[in-house]
Amino acid sequence: MKTKLFLMTIAISLMTACTNKNEIKTVDAKQFKVEIEKPDVQLIDVRANDLYSEGHIPGAVNIALESPDFLSQIEMLDKNNTVAVYCRGGRQSKEAAEKLKAAGFKVVELEGGILKWDGEVTSNVK
Question: Whole-model pTM?
Fold first, then answer.
């Protein structure tokens, strides 16, 4: 009986460990700043290209969720590194985070999108 209980505990622990690898962590702007400063974090802005150009978090790469090749573009990211994702208000980043998770990525999402961001913003518009 003790052996069965022990084996079941190990099995549950292993399943939990495997499940947590590809998770979505939704955080506020303050924690998002901490997350994107970590080494090897891949920062992705999933808004349309024109919105990205108007202003984005420095270091962010634009992979628009609405792009027909969104899935092929995210496949070029490194699955060993966390992806930090944001959009304007949070709806698109939630959808993108689910797609990233399904593709095998660990994801950190900015709650409320760039509208809640109080850090630096860079613009490509001149």
Answer: 0.82
